[in-house]
Give the backbone structure.
Amino acid sequence: MKKLKNILLFILLGSTVVSCYTARKSATEGSPKVKNVIFMIGDGMGVAHTYAAMSVSDKPLNIERCEITGLQKTFSANNYITDSGAAGTTLASGKKTNNGAIGVDDQGKKVKTLLEIAEENGLATGLVSTSSVTHATPASFIAHQSSRGSYEDIAKDFLKTDIDVFIGGGSDHFAKRADGLNLLDSLKSKGYEVDTSLDMIMKSIAGKLAGFTAPLQNPYRLKGRGDMLPASTGKAIEILKKNPKGFFLMVEGSQIDWAAHAHAADTTIDETLDFDKAVGVALDFAQQDGHTLVVITADHETGGVTITGGDRNAKTVKLAFSTSGHTAVMVPVYAFGPGSGKFTGIYDNTELFKKILTTYKFSKKTIKAE
Ligand code: MG
Ligand code: ZN
């Protein structure tokens, strides 16, 4: 009788161990395959910028839908305080570089970016920004120049890729150039539809789209940019999702940084809320798609922003700025969808590239080539 009891106990314990093991296995290996990654960068968007936006908003921010959060360290190869060129290059390539560099390492050597690797693997690719597309953050994903100010050379680098859609300002860097070239014509002969207004962009049914919403920089949303960022994010997803292999899209809220440099509290908060609307578009798509990872972060913090007062009922906040430049504080990472668990913890900004790349599960050959 005792022996029988022992056998029963053994079977019971055994089956518990097996079921625990099965549960753990399905949480990792059983999670749906990631086809698409939407990488969203709020330029200069620290914790204070985001919490100020949360505090004045009538409803929770879209960013708050992310269950996974992490923190990343932003220092560059040659400076404790990074600029957007170095930080963008690291987010795009996993390599630290010097301030001012775009898509090259600290020796000036070209580095391969997530956008380029996605392209090599047959995925569709896109860039959306409220700045010119040639500005440091989007440029870091597609161009290779030692200086972020070489806008016309950066524009030329767009032609060396097979990017499917890009939307932002900056048509002058393509059409009004010192070398007299008209790169808008070159884009057209490469099969792009070239649109020069948000209206045209939204009506487009093109498979390859170069969308310009300003000759150089777009205005702040409060000064007339309207829904350009969330609308363009939706349009880019609509084009990219047609590729059955998947896509890589980078979306930047470029002007959170500019407003914080200018110590313009209301604009800093408004640009953060506008970026959050674009986050909502990405998360809605990811939620219904089930194979899309959304990663939201900043390249660095701008303004040394803190919140020195406010009223929860009146939904007001008082911001204080400690610098007109960038700071070295860690910036948050928010992640949503399959593979998002990897983004929890505290890590260097080089890690985001690695985490995104391994989530895609590209062939070993490509990762080796890196
Ligand atoms: Mg930027
Ligand atoms: Zn800045």
In short: The chain is about 40% helix and 20% strand. The radius of gyration is 22 Å.
